[in-house]
Amino acid sequence: MGQAASFTLNDGTSTPVPVTFSPERLPDGRIAWVDRRKSSRALQPSIILKQSPASGGRPTNKVGYEVVYPIEGLVDNVPAPVATARYVDGTFVIPDIMPAIDRAHLAAFTANFQDATLIKAVFKDLDFIF
């Protein structure tokens, strides 16, 4: 079994900046990697791994992921998420209010996640992370 570890992905700026994503176990048992540059967890982008090893009743392995990118705004003069962009099951869901630079980050994190060594092992070697 793979071990959840931090990794870096380049962001979507014109001169890409490496961003560290740290592992976090979600209440439902899935693994997420979180960009902790924002102080509030509600504002931190995350990538959630969806994995289901083959079993006796199903001879196939399922591996997927979801990218969650909160859009920051002010609510009562306090930074808070005002919308959320997502990449789920091959589809981007992008709020109209999402700034261009955040759209660039979402696209870069989504593309670069599949190229991370730790994640390649899940897809190529079925080395699931628990």
What's the main sheet like? 7 strands, antiparallel
The beta-strand count equals 7
Oligomer: single chain
Please provide the ordered H/E string of secondary-structure elements: EEEEEEEHH
CATH class: Alpha Beta
> What is the typical, i.e. mean, pLDDT?
90
Word description of this protein:
A hairpin with a 5-residue loop joins strand 2 (18-25) and strand 3 (31-35). 18% of the residues lie in helices and 40% in strands. It contains two helices and seven strands. It has a single domain, classed as MS2 Viral Coat Protein (2-Layer Sandwich). With 130 residues, the protein is an alpha+beta fold. It has a seven-stranded antiparallel beta sheet with strand order 1-2-3-4-5-6-7, with helices on one face.
Layout of helices and strands:
Blueprint: E1 7-10, E2 18-25, E3 31-35, E4 46-52, E5 62-75, E6 78-88, E7 91-93, H1 100-113, H2 117-125
Antiparallel strand pairs: 1-2, 2-3, 3-4, 4-5, 5-6, 6-7
